[in-house]
Design a protein that fits this description.
2 copies of one chain form a homodimer. Chain A is an alpha+beta fold and 262 residues long. The first copy, chain A, has 9 helices and 10 strands. Chain A binds a DNA duplex (19 and 19 nucleotides) through helix 3.
Chain lengths: 262, 262
DNA sequence: CAGTGGTCTAGACCACGTG
DNA sequence: ACGTGGTCTAGACCACTGA
């Protein structure tokens, strides 16, 4: 016990405490939580702070609540975070797997129309392009094709790409990835995909196109990741109030509009 | 103008107003928003209410904010909601498409192990099983295989499944779908999939397995939806603070644990 | 340095649900 | 009828950003 987050905000500490209570069976799946006023007294904070903590758990799909009734426990908390969705290395390590990567290509090149659109740069501006095959243990599970804006790419080029997590290294140098939008669809492996993953062309792949921005909203990278369909899946939570996820026609918005459809 | 949501909470009205302002170009992508205190004065509410509205936009990926600096506009707001992710009909209509569906099978049967696990019922309990092919215009785009708990399934059986949105009809009868967890992966069309969608076996499909619960956390249905990979994709937003989405090893959790992994 | 968002408090009223 | 969560107010202090 102890040594935990004395400096972190109170509402986060409370969310952590509630998560632990649920995981350890103090509050079981399907049962009701104490009222917000009771929790406020228990943690010696105002009700507003308790509500802030509960909002976090609600967004995680751990609890649900309605107007006149007490909150209920929906499910065990999942251990995941933003960095684990962004970084293959962080994710793999959190699962106890040994992440590995083989660099296929690292090049400085010039932005084409797609790069320009997704990174908010001008066509012809320099960007960095990186292709890696990522593995769990010895088995390849995905191909990662990432395009970085020049300032970030220069840092990437100085990292040990075979061993390290790019995002951990960049974070050390003050490059913060704060927000991402992901497009998820399915496609058949083309010849290059197939060769890199060691499968037949035509094998179904899960495609994730991602665009990541800094806290200021500045695009930092975009990536086209392709997973073996039976190796990995994505999980998302989705409640009546929230709009974190959506479904769109077609695959990936290419030409104009940043937001697809239209 | 006017006629809009006089009864809805103030923070929602403010979020709507800000979304409109961004869409209409009052606040452009990449620029700063007014300070929270200024917005509070403009809308004549307290700062807390403004922050509640901004939290919504943040979760949607429309704006971002950090400690000492003003919020910035990340992207144009997307028109989507929970019901549009859940209901094929609502989604298609919102896009101006004409949704259609062909019922392949509707049967009352008895829960197998997977049903029992996902719906919190006992193996052998009655459930309702529905298979539909969904189309946009004349083209089939997905197969929907849904299993309902008995109480909901009985209502489903009384609905015009070819024309109506199940979820709209159920909502009218007081069955509220409040929370969903989705698992997204890729797989190859099997013979049945291929025949129903009119494609070759082996064609890549985007698979979404969903489990939906009531506001009280009671499971109402689970579904295995398979989309033509090039017809539809999913979009998700994901910020440093949030945990709405995650990546997991393997495809769909089958046996135990509700939360996959472990 | 002044201004900002992040956090927190201590109240209040309402619509809703359950007994 | 009562307790509940949802909403809202009017303050306050802090850590951080940016000129």
């Amino acid at each position: 016990m102890s040594a935990l987050a004395t400096g972190s905000p109170r509402h986060r500490q409370i969310a952590d405490a509630l998560r632990r209570s649920i995981r350890s069976g103090v509050y079981e799946r399907g049962t009701q939580l104490p009222s917000e006023r009771e929790l406020a007294e228990e943690f010696d904070v105002s009700r507003g702070t308790v509500r802030q903590a509960l909002a976090t758990l609600r967004a995680e799909g751990v609890v649900a609540s309605r107007k006149g009734a007490r909150g209920v426990v929906l499910a065990e908390p999942r251990a995941q975070s933003f960095s684990e969705l962004l970084s293959f290395s962080a994710w793999a390590r959190a699962l106890g797997e040994r992440p590995a990567g083989r660099v296929v290509e690292l090049a400085r090149r010039y932005a084409d129309a797609a790069d320009a659109h997704r990174l908010d740069v001008t066509e012809g501006d320099p960007v960095f392009f990186l292709v890696r095959v990522r593995m769990l243990g010895d088995a390849p599970v995905m191909i990662e094709r990432t395009t970085f804006v020049e300032s970030v790419g220069r840092l990437v080029a100085s990292v040990d790409l075979e061993a390290d997590s790019i995002y951990a290294r960049l974070a050390e140098r003050g490059v913060v990835f704060a927000h991402a939008r992901h497009y998820v669809s399915a496609l058949a492996a083309d010849n290059e995909d197939a060769a890199l993953l060691g499968v037949e062309p035509g094998t179904p792949l899960l495609r994730q196109v991602r665009r990541t921005t800094s806290p200021e909203g500045m695009p930092l990278e975009w990536a086209d990741d392709r997973y073996l369909g039976d190796a990995v899946s994505f999980v998302l939570e989705n409640s009546s109030g929230s709009r974190h996820a959506a479904r769109v026609i077609g695959t990936i918005p290419e030409p104009r509009g940043d937001g697809a459809l239209r």
